[in-house]
Amino acid sequence: MKSIEKFGRLGLTGLLVIAAMAAGASQPAAAQEELRVATAYKLMTLDPQYANLNENNSLLSQIYERLVYQDENLALTPGLAVSWKALSDTSWEFKLRADVTFHDGSPFTADDVVYSVERIRTFLQPSGGGFRSYLSAIKSVSAPDPLTIVIETDGSVPNLPLAFSSIFIMHRPAQGFQTTDELNAGTSPVGTGPYRFQSWSSGEVLKLVANRNYWGGMPSWPLVEFRVIENPAARVAALATGDVDLADAIPARDVKSLQQRGVKVESIGAARVNFLQFDVASGKAPGVTDKAGKPIGNPFRNASVRRALAMATDRGVIVDKILAGYASPASQFFPEGLPGTSNQLRAQTPDYGAAKALLAKAGYPDGFNLVLAGTAGRYPGDGESLQAIAQSWARIGVSVQPIAAPFSVFNTKRAAGEYGVWYGGCSGESVDIILDALLASPQSGRSRGALNFGHYRNETFDAMLADAESVRQGSERDQALAKATEFVMADQPVIPLYHFHHIVGFRQKVASYVMHPRGWTTAMQALPATE
Amino acid sequence: MTLLSLAMGRLAQALLLLFVMSLIGFAGVHAVGNPVYNVVNIETASAEDIRLATIALGLDQPLWRQYLLFVSNALQGNFGTSYIYHQPAFSLVMSKLPATLELACCAMLVAAPLGTMLGLLAGARPGSLLDRIVLQTAIGALSIPSFWLSMMLILVGAVATGWFPASGRAATTDLLDQQWSFATADGLRHMVLPVLALAIPNAALIARLARAGTIDVEHLEFSRFCRAKGLSARRILFRHTLPNISLPIVTIVGLQFGGMLAFAVVVESIFAWPGIGKLLIDSIQLLDRPVVMATLTFISVAFVTLNAVVDLFHALLDPRVRVGA
Description:
The structure holds two protein chains of two kinds. The longest helix of chain A is centred in the C-terminal third of the chain and has 15 residues, at about 475-490. Chain A has helices at about 1-10, 10-25, 55-60, 110-125, 130-135, 160-165, 180-185, 230-240, 255-260, 305-310, 315-320, 350-360, 380-395, 405-415, 430-440, 460-470, 475-490; strands at about 35-40, 65, 70, 75-80, 80-90, 90-95, 140-145, 150-155, 170, 195-200, 205-210, 225-230, 245, 265-270, 270-280, 325-330, 370-375, 400-405, 420-425, 495-505, 510-515, 525-530. By secondary structure, chain A is of the alpha+beta class. Chain A has 17 helices and 22 strands. Helix content of chain B is about 75%, strand content about 0%. Chain B contains 14 helices and two strands; from the N terminus they run αααααααββααααααα. Chain B has helices at about 1-30, 35-40, 45-55, 65-75, 90-125, 130-145, 145-160, 185-220, 220-230, 235-265, 265-270, 275-285, 290-315, 320-325, and strands spanning about 175, 180. At the A-B interface, α1, α2, α7, α8 and α14 of A face α2, α3, α7, α11 and α12 of B.
C-alpha cells in the first residue's frame, strides 16, 4: 500500500490536472438533477449506531437525523428536538419536533428516541455500540408524552445536549431491536433525514433520493450518488474530468490547478488538531539516546526540554510549504475563535537561539538523538511534517530519526508504549473532548485520557477541566476551558502543530457549498446552481 | 490409476498450500497490529471499551487458539464476520468477485491474442524493423510501474481527451444474481482504461515469450522440413509454430490471470474499481483479519484451480504430456 499512497505525494495529481488544463477537455453534459460526489469517507455499515467513525457518520447523517445539531461555530441548534432544558441537576427535558415522519411514512415520536437510546445502551454489544460512551451517564429515558423526552442522569451531566448531537435516531420496529445484519442487508435503513436510502455497496457507493416529505422543506437534489474514492489522486481526477460534481478532502497542492480549471474550492479550518506528544512518565523514553548513541534518562520529563523543542518547531514550513496555506498554525486544540479556545495563546515563530539556550540550561547543551514516530497518509501533511520537524530540531542539536508508519501499525505501537515522542491527531464535537482525551489523567472505566499515551498527570489541570465541565454550555464554560488550556499549555505536555483545512471542490452544477469544521460531506451542504 | 494418483497428489499439494497460506496470513496480520484500534473510535473509547471489544472479537485469546478456532470454522465454510463491515467475510469477497472477474477476463482477452500475434510476427523475422519495435515496446511496457501507466492512461484517455471516464464502475446490470458492467455501453466505457492498464504489461510479457519461442522453433528441423516441403510462411507460422510455442504461453496466461484476480491492487485502487484486490489491500490496512483470510483462501483455491486447468491444457496441446502421464 505504501507505493499506492506515495504516488499521491509525487504530485502526479498535479500533473494530471495541469495537462487537463492545457488540453481544455470538453465535458459530456451530465443530468442536471443528480448530484455526484466523490468522497474519501468510506461507508462501512448502514447501522448508524454500530461504530462511531466519521467514515460512517458523514454519509449516514443524510438518512438519519439527530436531536441536536452543531452549526458552523459548533453552537448547538435544534434538530429533531426543538428545545431542551435542564429540569434539575440530574434530569433533562427535550421537546421534540412535531409533524416529522420517517421514510416509511410513520410518525416520529418520543418512543423512537427511547428506542434509539436503549438500542445503544442495552442491545448493541461490543465491538459494536461505539456510541455507548456518550450515553454512559444516563440512568433512564422516559416519554411522558409523544413529543417530550425526559432523561435522568447519574450525577450532573451539563453537556448532555451535546452528546445527543452524535446520536442518530432510528425508528422503533414492530418488535425487538433491529440487528446490524438486518440493516446491512440494505432493506430497511429508515430515518427522518432529507435523503432516503436507495441502494449501497459497502465501501463503494451510496445512492440516495430526496425525501419529499422532509420537515425542513424539499431537499435540493432529487438524486444523490456518493462514490467512495479513497485515493486522493483518483478523487481529484474524477473531479477534474467531470465524472463527479463535488469531491471532498482535496489535497492542498492540487487546489491551484483545479481552480485554474474552473473548479471552485471552499475550505475551513478543521475542528481538530495535529500535535506532537511526549512520553512524560517513563524513566527511559524509547528511541532517545545521547549523541554517542547511548541510552539516557527520559529528557521529556523536564518541561524545559519540551518548551525548548516547541520553540524550535517551525510551523510556518508545515503550513505554507507542505500544506500550501491550507492549514493554520496551532497553539491550542481548536482553531482560535471556536468555543472554548483562548485568545491569549499564539503559535510561536521559531527562536532557535533561545531554544538552544533553554535546552543547555536543562542539561542538554549538546542535544540528544530521538526517534520521532508518526502516521503516513492518515492526516494531510503527516509524513512530511516529520521531516520538517527533524530539520528544525537539528538546528538546536537534537537529531531526529523520523519514522512514518501506517495508522494501524502506529496505533498498536503507540498503545504498547514503544514511542518516546510521536505525531498524532485528535478531533471532537467540542474542545473539552480533546482536552479530556489527550491531557486528563487516565481514570479506569471512564473515557478520560483515552489518548493520553504520554501519561501526563496534572491534578491542578484535572481540577480546572472538571470545574469547566461542570458548567453548562455557554460563555462561562468556554472561558473556563480557555483558562484550563492556557494553564496546561504553559507546561507544554504536547506541542500543537497545525489545524489542517477541510477542502472541497465542486463544478458548475453546484453553486455553493457550506463548509463545516467537523468536515463531513453531505448533499445538504451543496446548493444547486439555478439556470 | 495414474490419473487418479496424479489428482490425489495435486489435491494433497493444494491442501498443504492452503494450510501454509493460512498460517502465514494469520501470523502476518497479527504481526502488523491490533485490529481493535480500528474498530473502536480511538479518540473517545475508554480502556474498558477497548477491553470489551477485544473480548468480543476474540482477540484476548492466545494466537494459537484463535488460529484453531479459525481453522475449525473455516472447515465448515465459515470465515467469520468482518470486523469493519460487520458482514460475513466470505460473501463480502464473493460480492467483489464479478467486478474483478470481468476486468481480468477482458484484460486477458485483449492481452493474450495481441501479445501472441505480435510475438509471432516479430519472432518470424528476428532483426527486422517490426521485431525491433515490438521488442523495445514490450521491454518498455514491462518496465513501466503499474501506477504510472494507470495515471498516464487517465491523463490521456480521460483528462485530456474526455473519451473515457477517469474512474469508477458504471451502473451495473443484474445477471445470475450478480452485478456486471460489461453488458451496457456505459459499463464498457468505464472498463476501457482499467482493462488497458492490466492488459498492456501482460501483452508485453506474452509477446516476449511468443517471440522467443518462435525464434527457437523456427530453427528446429521440422520447421526447415516444412519450408523444404514448400509450405507458405503463414501456414508454417500458424499451423506449426504456434502450437509448438503455446505451452509456455498458456502457462503464463494462467498465472497472470490468477495474479489479476488477486493482485490488481494498484489498478483497482487508482480506477476506484471495487474488486477483490482493492478489498484485500483495504482489509490489510484495517487489519480486518476475517476478510483477509477469506480473500487469501479464495485466491489460493483460484490459483490451484487455474494451475490444474493449465495442466489440462498442456495435455490437450502436447501429446507428449499425455503419453508421459
